[in-house]
Amino acid sequence: MSASRTERLLNLLIALLNTRYGLRRSELRDKVYHDTSGNDVAFGRMFERDKNDLRQFGFDVETLTERGWSEDDPATTRYRIGKESNRLPDVQLDPEEWTVLLLASQLWERAALGSAAKSALRKLQASGRMSEVELPAGLQPRIKPAGQAFDDLVNAMHAGHPVTFRYLAGSTGKEEQRTVEPWGLGSRFGQWYLVGFDRARQAPRHFRLSRLTGAVIILERERYSPPADFDVRKELDRLPELPLRTAVVDVREGRLLALRRRALESVPAAPAAARPGYDRLAIQFRDPEVLAEELASYGPDAVAAAPEELAAAVGRRLRAAADFSASPVPEYSFPPVRPRTARPRTSEDQLKRMLQLVPFLVHNQGLHIQEVASRFGVTRKELEDDLRILICSGLPEGYPDDLLDIQWENDHVFITQDLDFKRPVRFTVDEACALLTGLETLNGLPGIAEGGTLESVTLKLLAAAGQEGLRAASLAGPRIGPADAATHSVVRQAIESREQLHLTYLSPQRDKVTERDVDPIRLYSLDNTWYFEAYCHLVQGLRNFRLDRIEDVRPNGRLASVDITPGTGVPVKLFTPNDDDTTVILQLTRQGRGLADDYYAERTAELPDGGLVAEVRFGNTAWLPMFVAQHGGAARIIAPAEVAGAAQDWLDASLASYGG
């Protein structure tokens, strides 16, 4: 990162904000850029890039011309930035509204727009001191990461670029290349959908993200404009739910207890009788691809007999997984330390942070420098670098008292001269979408959606976000209300009162029902799938339980005996890390690379095709063949050899059930 570029952008911003008449290009070149190269073409390109960068930060650079003169004449064209048009209005929130807003901002913790939500929250904290609030005990709803395709589509949509990708059409079963102008992204029926204008068909179309079979390519040289009144939630609400259908599945005797409990009492006629050693079951479904993903993971223990569409979908996933597993192992090398998931810091990132830092310090005088660094997610050294650039920035050809005055003596930070940066910049589109979509997603969450707090904070943010807030209608999150509100309520009350619970729990991996006493710690969700983390006295360790697999739960009359404070994020592992865990090397395609974050890879190595090699620790490797089959060609096991061999045997046996 070039520190000089950050300083140049900041000084250009200060100069344009502090002129009423406007500054000519020649004045800016001399006073801000200090450019004496004489190369007008190179300087013109640099100036245009800098203006575009400032616009991306939320500042409208006004172009003023003398009457009768053209904007093409640099000698008569002046530039300035209005001080009010780019600032975030003051937003006053009461403690209940802050509580709801904090929950909404944390929904994106491990998903796209997570950094935008944090940035927006810092701006609100800078516009007025945040009330001292406590989040509901142990309640942490989350939006499940939707993968790299989601991130790419959000970026393209907000920048106004069309995209192209390969897509498996549900109506025809054919894979085709599509070029689409993305209008909106939303969740419906537990799936993420893209709504956009299909250029080949010259009509709006819906695309389910799970049917994308290739990477999303952003056509950055092309632009488009979406319909002015487009609302993706209303559009997806018109999408009819798929009809309920019945599948015929042969299940190995004594296996797959969870699947058996979903079976209908009567089985419709099928072309052939159940194979020896199997029971024939009838399973209801709506989407063949969703059921195919589940059945593929069961491998030879479950075979789809009808309809043919379902059997073909399972076979396609298994074949893709087998082909990927049999492909040559790529060359890779892990770096000594796993690289940070965030992209490398750029001048744009640093300037955006500094523009939030000044108003934050104005409203939070005297904070310890380490606390400030933690609030902004940087190291102390990075923060001090920011502060040093700030105190060297000011008005062109100004005096020392025209500079920003920031001091951090005794490790406590004070700002006494802010050059009118005390109000944060208005929300970007990403920031407005992250918060407003998060608030909408909280609808239906017990204990939060009741009353008028959710509506009032939404209206305040819409008013503050302005035009960017209106564009939040292009994004709609999933419904996160729990399917079993009664179970959710029992667990939540036990967490608040520190009571112990007695569970009757179905474990699909072990394929049996167990009873156990647990000390509940926190409730969390990934979309509308809810879990609770607890200390399990049966195994004497932390475990995570899915609410929809709980057959019975009730307080056992004892108080929780283990005092564990939950972490701030989603549980690090879905098992308790131990010294005897197995280190597994996975290869993930570009579509499947998000699995590295889902399973908290300890090291990753980038591949030329956009995929990853990831090193992940697992306490139990017996289920990994199911994992490979489920993801249908997006993941494979490279090492250990015996685990990779077990997965290959599992896939071979599974394919044999479908005729190879």
Describe this structure in words.
The protein is α+β, with helices and mostly antiparallel strands. 34% of the residues lie in helices and 23% in strands. It is built from 20 helices and 25 strands. Strands 4, 17, 18, 19, 20 and 21 form a six-stranded mixed beta sheet that branches. The protein is globular and about 90 Å long. Mean pLDDT is 85; it is low at 338-344.
Search tags:
alpha+beta
Task: Describe the protein's topology.
Layout: H1 3-17, E1 23-24, H2 25-33, H3 40-56, E2 61-65, E3 77-81, H4 95-106, H5 114-127, E4 139-140, H6 148-159, E5 163-168, E6 175-188, E7 191-198, E8 203-208, E9 217-218, H7 232-237, E10 245-252, H8 257-260, E11 278-285, H9 288-298, E12 302-306, H10 308-326, H11 347-363, E13 367-368, H12 369-375, H13 380-391, E14 405-407, E15 412-417, H14 429-441, H15 453-465, H16 467-470, E16 475-476, H17 485-497, E17 499-507, E18 512-526, E19 529-536, E20 541-546, E21 550-559, E22 582-588, H18 595-598, E23 603-606, E24 612-618, H19 624-630, E25 635-639, H20 641-657
Parallel strand pairs: 4-18, 6-16
Antiparallel strand pairs: 1-3, 2-3, 5-6, 5-9, 6-7, 7-8, 10-11, 10-12, 13-15, 14-15, 17-18, 17-21, 18-19, 19-20, 22-24, 22-25, 23-24
Helix pairs in contact: 1-11, 4-5, 4-14, 4-15, 5-11, 5-14, 9-10, 9-19, 10-20, 14-15, 19-20
